[in-house]
Amino acid sequence: MATDVHIHTNTGTPPMHTDATLVLAQWLSPAFPVGAFAYSHGLETAVQDGVVSGGETLRAWLEDVLCHGTGANDAIILAAAHAARDEDALDHVDASARAFTASAERMRESLLMGRAFAATVSASHGIALSDLVYPVAVGRAARLAGLPLELVQAMYLQAFASNIVSVAVRLVPLGQTEGQTVLARLTPICRRIATEVRGRKLDDLSGAAFLSDIAAMRHETLHTRLFRS
Questions:
Q1: Residue spans of the chain under pLDDT 70
Q2: Would you tell me which CATH number, out of the four given (3.40.250.10, 1.10.10.10, 2.40.30.170, 1.10.4190.10), belongs to the domain 39-219?
Q3: Are 201 and 76 in contact (CB under 8 A)?
Q4: Of the four, 70, 86, 96, 97, which is 20 to 30 A from 110 by CA?
């Protein structure tokens, strides 16, 4: 059942009454200007190396990233930001997220997307955010808007996977239909991860998607690059 939320703006206008799913669909849409289209999260390296060359190898690559790398970790970080009771707690979450970032380009990716998200959500929904990396900014905004955590996590992960699939469509190249088929197979995994990480804390952050992390590090030295990470 849809959850109705009341978003109190800082603009002096009455609160907006809307559905949580629709708010998240807007925030996590490719149309929301956070610049996600410019980042491959290391996939460009994997494509150049021939590790990802079609739909099945893309699905396997992304499933590992979701389950054992950035995906599960971002879900934990997002939850910690959602639960933060004050600015000190939020600063601790943000510092932990930055410390756990695997490469300089991924740090820039998360920081610039977080800043763009904060600026846009402030202008469009009147939610004020400090300078936070992307999953922390989304988690904090979701708490301030009263959005349910598990729905936020699942839709965040699906949006993350969708962006990487879009990158693959352009890089591999991969057909649009095959890309959407890959995403459809990954979507239940996003919901499963949101359920599995329930109750996990920052101390539970871990990473075993080593090829993805190494690809992100090596991307900085590629001779030809289309993407910023």
A1: 1-18
A2: 1.10.4190.10
A3: yes
A4: 86
Residue 15 DSSP one-character state: P
Joined together, the tokens standing for residue 182 give 């890959």
Q: CB 11: neighbour CB atoms within 10 A?
A: 10
**What is the secondary structure of 20-57 as a DSSP string?**
HHHHHHHHTSTTSSS-GGG--TTHHHHHHTTS--SHHH
> What 3-state DSSP class applies to 6?
strand
Tokens (6 digits) for 215: 């690809």
* Alpha-carbon gap, residue 2 to 175, rounded angstroms: 33
* Burial class (CB within 10 angstroms; exposed 0-12, middle 13-18, buried 19+) of 53: middle
pLDDT tens readout for residues 14-41: 444 469 999 999 999 999 999 999 999 9
Can you give the C-alpha Rg of the chain in angstroms?
17
pLDDT of the residue at 118: 98
Q: Specify the amino acid at residue 154.
A: A
Peptide bond preceding 173: is omega within 30 degrees of 0, i.e. cis? yes
